[in-house]
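tool_call: predict_structure(chain=1)
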Amino acid sequence: MKNFIFPQERELVILCTSEELRGVLFSPDHIKGLIFAVASAPEIPLPDIWLPWVFQRRGELSSEEQADKLTDLLMTMLQQQLGLMRDERVDLPASLILPEDYQERSAQDMALCQWFSGLLAGHSLLESLWQKAWQSRDKKHPHSMPDAVKTLSHCLSIFSTFADIGLAMEQSAQRTDKDNFASMLPKIYRSLPLALRQYVILSGELVEYLPNQFESYVQQQYES
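tool_result:
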């Protein structure tokens, strides 16, 4: 795991925990996971589509200046995440640890869970883009679909486990042995960097099945 920390992350924490915006914006880690999902999409949505997703509930920003600051902050973080992906530096941030007392803690209390809840929320909101790419790939190269579908399902299953560990443990207790699942969780946790890379690689493979909006948008971001 790499400790990729951008200066903007500290600004994001200040905004999210401010008296005015606490409870209006999602947690900083949720938003960072969401940004990862947006950057990983086969086609990057326009800012006016995904920027509202950082709001947990409706709320008015105090000024146009504050709105511009939040927008600039999020767009910069997206560009930085895209840069890491472009350079094949995809990893689990070092701050996202699996606490030793994870069985006693809630998902809201763990940065790891918050980050993956953001990633999954973003993936769900971008599902139509993924489906469009899937359908195009299925028409052109149907033989490649089973492996691709298996890979994505595997990644999303692991992400879901760490988006809400408590829920995952409850579900495992219904299927098998809860204690056995708990003992396996650290090993599953260590597989997260690989799963994230597989997720991004799979998305990259799907880009060729979509129009060129993705490439033009990324180029636009690096030129701005």
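agent: The two ends are 30 Å apart (CA to CA). Proceeding to next step.
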